[in-house]
Amino acid sequence: MTTTTPAAHAALLPLPTTAARAATTTGAALALIGTFLAWTYTDTFPGDLTVTGYPGGLQVLTLISAALTLLFALSGYGIKGLRWLTPGGTNSPTRLLALGTLVTTLYTVIAVVVTKDDNGNLLGLIELEPGAWVSLTGAIIASIAALGLPNDEPLDDTSPNALKRFLGSLRAPAPVRAGALPAWAEILIIAVAFGVALQVFTYGIDTEYAELFIGYVLTVAFGFTALTRAGLIARVTALTSKHRNVTLCAALVAAFCFPFTQQNEEYALIGANILIFATVALGLNVVVGLAGLLDLGYVAFLGVGAYAAALVSGSPLSPIGVQFPFWAAVLTGAAASLVFGVVIGAPTLRLRGDYLAIVTLGFGEIFRLTVNALNGVSGPDLTNGSQGIPSIPDLKLFGFDFGISHAIGGFTLGRSANYYLLMLVFTAVVVLVFRRSGESRIGRAWVAIREDETAATAMGINAFRLKLLAFALGATLAGLAGTVQAHVSYTVTPEQYQFAGSVPPNSAFLLAAVILGGMGTLSGPLVGAALLYLIPAKLQFMQDYQLFLFGIALILLMRFRPEGLVADRRKQLEFHETGQLDVPPDTPLTDAAAGTTKAGA
User: Fold this and answer.
1) How far apart, in Å, are the Cα atoms of 518 and each of 59, 341, 436?
2) Residues in CB range of 68: below 8 A, 6 or more apart
3) CB under 8 Å, gap of 24 or more: what pairs does 556-563 form?
4) What distances in angstroms separate CA 103 from CA 56, 177, 217, 450, 523, one per listed residue?
5) What is the C-alpha radius of gyration for the chain, rounded to an integer number of angstroms?
6) Which site among 6, 45, 225, 341 is 20 to 30 Å from 231 CA-CA?
7) What is the pLDDT of residue 576?
8) How many angstroms separate the CA atoms of 490 and 520, rounded?
9) pLDDT value of position 9
10) Which residues lie below 8 Å from residue 1, measured CB to CB, with a gap of 6+?
């Protein structure tokens, strides 16, 4: 008996399903084998792709992409154990992974060809060795054959537009519920997931040249999208929602292990700055994500905390001339930000929407201009004007000097690693505050105000008082991060606290981190901040075009994933049809990453 594939499930290319799957598997295997052969004739291209039997540089990324493509293609054969990886379907993620393998391999080939030698001449196609052609051929075969696989989900769009049909074919159905696993197995899966995430993040920071980092971004983008379409991310998310405390502990342990994987102080410093940026973004998430208050001058609270700590931390150029212990400097910075939050919020929070955004934008600029004017000429001598407050001494806490290297358990932790671990403690505190406040009665009131302030007021909620509380809490959390930032950077200057710029943190990047990661979620701003800081830090040669590329990325995000990278079910229900959710239908309205209960559900 011959079975026919419904038109809605028809493949983009008229190929027999069996032949298409076999060709996809063969092509992925061929691309994988090619990574063990030499790709270049000389070692001019960074990464040394001349070695046979040992992949290096961009070859590793092609190897990973091809291995994942092969794994997901094999899961289409119904192999026992592999189906757990693809509860939402196998064909859509296989297409994405095959395309990712092709894009990464093709990018590597082009990068090699256009590289110049010591004499300024292009290397050209003659530089390529057989391994590059083998992997490229395999990637092409896998990508074309994957288009012959039937769609996992019926297509509602019957438009003749090929691009729309292709994008629709990448959709996968809602993940199928898996059978219950023992608690120890679920906890083990969570631990493995965070271990993989740590490895992926560490690999990205450790990339030594721009070509490798661009390839890394391409691989991660296609891989993450494929895993999402396969339903694996939703399946892991369901486990993290079920075991909230275990998830938070696993995340903390993974973050704690990061500095022990770094030997380069520059990379450890990137990690410390990412934590500062992420912590401030999480504080902004209280204001924007929970309470729904659009604050365009939030970076000023970071500056208030940094300046307050710098003034009392013993800098020789501080006009105050005092040196508080660190705990007192932290309290000073947090208290100063709290006061400014209340002073600014009290007269402005009676405004709503665009008017509130304009006022907060003005406050951010007023702060920067004011500290620039307090130079003893235009105003009182308090901040040294544009020169800022330099030479902030390193911290000494309980006899531990953060400015020198320390040997711990066979590992050497430098200055940047020391501050990273200190900032990790602050981040854990902010996460705890955000989680508890979001789950509290006050948090539910914030969400009610965010959804409809008029209705919330009619139900007896004191909207002004609660908005002021959110504003003050967010300012305090930013001030905490500012106290550490002042010591990490040695100096604070007005130029560090602009509305927009090519280097985060600034108000525009902070707001983008919240929106990109997922408003109102616990892990969303952390993910968004990590991406927005890491990418500019690794692609400094594109500094003149960063804001342009940043704008394009936000447009694409708003078009294809408006709920953010880490979204709760509430946001997905708001922006998508039920059949397109990335979380299981029976998942409660909680934070998709850490299970933070959404207020007002």
Assistant:
1) 33, 24, 18
2) 97, 223, 226
3) 557/515, 557/516, 563/518
4) 18, 33, 11, 41, 29
5) 26
6) 6
7) 59
8) 33
9) 52
10) none
3-state DSSP call for residue 407?
strand
Q: In whole angstroms, what is the distance from residue 334 CA to residue 328 CA?
A: 10
Closest CA to 560 of 103, 163, 279, 98: 163
335 exposure class (CB count in 10 Å sphere: 0-12, 13-18, 19+)? middle
The CA-atom distances, in angstroms, between 223 and each of 94, 122, 200, 216 are 10, 31, 11, 10
> For residue 427, which of 529, 327, 341, 516 has the smallest C-alpha distance?
529
pLDDT at position 585 is 45
Q: Where are the beta strands (DSSP E) in 81-240?
A: none
Torsions phi, psi for 401 (to 5 deg): -90, 115
How far apart CA 112 and CA 75 sit, in angstroms, is 34
| 211 contacts 109 by C-beta, under 8 angstroms | no
Classify residue 468 as left (phi > 0), alpha (psi -120 to 50) or beta. alpha
Amino acid letter for position 550: F
Q: What is the DSSP letter of 389?
A: B
Q: Give the dihedral sign, CA 149/150/153/158.
A: positive
- Residues counted in the chain: 601
pLDDT the model gives residue 570: 65
Q: Is 16 left (phi over 0), alpha (psi -120 to 50) or beta?
A: beta
* pLDDT under 70: residue ranges of the chain: 1-11, 152-180, 378-379, 501-503, 541-544, 567-601
Considering the entire predicted model, what is its pTM?
0.80
Whether 381 and 374 have beta carbons less than 8 Å apart is answered as: yes
Compute the distance between CA of residue 66 and CA of residue 228 in angstroms, rounded to an integer: 18
* Measured CA angle at 334 (ends 330, 340), to 5 deg: 150
* Beta carbons of 93 and 72 less than 8 angstroms apart: yes
Pairwise CA distance, residues 471 & 284, whole Å: 9
Predicted confidence at residue 461, as pLDDT, reads 85
What b/e string do you get for 204-222 counting C-beta neighbours within 10 Å, with b at 16 or more? bbebeeebbbbbbbbbbeb
| Token representation of residue 245 | 């405390």
Name the residue among 22, 16, 27, 30 with its Cα closest to residue 74: 22
Q: 407 pairs with which residues across the strands?
A: 412
Dihedral sign from CA coordinates of 6, 166, 59, 201: negative
How far, rounded to the nearest angstrom, does the alpha carbon of residue 535 sit from its chain's CA centroid? 10
Percent of residues in the chain assigned helix, strand, coil, to nearest 5: 65, 5, 35
435: left (phi over 0), alpha (psi -120 to 50) or beta: alpha
Residue 505 preceded by cis peptide, ω within 30: yes
In one-letter notation, the amino acid at residue 428 is: A
Q: Report the distance separating Cα 484 and Cα 310, nearest Å.
A: 10
Q: Both tokens of residue 37?
A: 């052969």
CB of 417 within 8 A of CB of 259?
A: yes
- What per-residue confidence (pLDDT) applies to 6? 47
**What DSSP character marks residue 396?**
E
Positive or negative, the CA dihedral 459, 464, 465, 468 is positive
Among candidate residues 204, 285, 273, the one with its CA nearest the CA of residue 512: 285
The answer to whether the CB of 131 falls within 8 A of the CB of 34 is: yes
